[in-house]
């Protein structure tokens, strides 16, 4: 059994300008200690306009916080107005990029095919994808949440070789639990995360599946994180709203103390 280092990632979504991003990252850095980073990998996913500021702060102050983007273009460059490319993110030394977040799927019509192309673009540029999957409420109510989510996993991983697949992070985010305050029960989250790991074992091997980190996302807070992290197949959290409060995010990182 591989020991997977938990990954707590704060997805800031469209919040915090670059000045606020600097202040927020400094606050996190001030609160977090070496022992936190030894136990947990900590990352922030700011808006594109903040990335250069966060990079400069992290590198200048030698912070142990990782950072990444919230989206990536499938193209390396060219006439694609408004897009941000993998080479641009790589130049900013982004460690991670969120791909296929439900808000991208819902508001920008992102399909599994596009998610797959973006996963490939991330790997091509040396950036680790945090590939987001999860079902809408009607899918869960119909009892099809596992099938639905596994189809997203399979679609997103199409053509990805094992040596890349074993490094990916998959975030299971039931859409009905995002920003709603409705947390998926820890055991319900575990059911889907275990199924995701099983699907990876089927597509690749148990060895690959044991290495992949699977996060839960959806109304994670300091008050519920410990129970979620107590599940065998949950290796971290993708935190939205609660990551905008530095004290709260630090408590989430210290889930073992909650
Ligand atoms: O990426 C994060 C998820 O969408 C969860 O957001 P939330 O913690 O605000 O529910």
Automatic annotation (TrEMBL):
| PROSITE patterns recorded | TIM_1, TIM_2
Which chain positions lie within coiled-coil regions?
none
Q: Name one GO cellular component term.
A: cytosol
Where found in the cell?
Cytoplasm
Q: Which Pfam families match?
A: TIM
Q: Which SUPFAM superfamilies match?
A: Triosephosphate isomerase (TIM)
The record's catalysed reaction(s) read: D-glyceraldehyde 3-phosphate = dihydroxyacetone phosphate
Gene Ontology annotations of biological process type:
gluconeogenesis; glyceraldehyde-3-phosphate biosynthetic process; glycerol catabolic process; glycolytic process
Protein name per its UniProtKB record: Triosephosphate isomerase
What exactly does this protein do? Involved in the gluconeogenesis. Catalyzes stereospecifically the conversion of dihydroxyacetone phosphate (DHAP) to D-glyceraldehyde-3-phosphate (G3P).
Is the keyword Cell inner membrane in the record? no
Could you tell me which InterPro entries the record lists for this protein?
Aldolase_TIM, TIM_sf, TrioseP_Isoase_bac/euk, Triosephosphate_isomerase, Triosephosphate_isomerase_AS
Q: Where along the chain is the active site annotated?
A: 101, 173
User: Which family is annotated?
Assistant: Belongs to the triosephosphate isomerase family.
Which CDD domains does the entry link to? TIM
EC number(s)?
5.3.1.1
Which GO molecular function, any one, fits this protein according to its record?
triose-phosphate isomerase activity
Q: Which organism is it from?
A: Streptomyces spinoverrucosus
Q: Where does substrate bind?
A: 11-13, 179, 219, 240-241
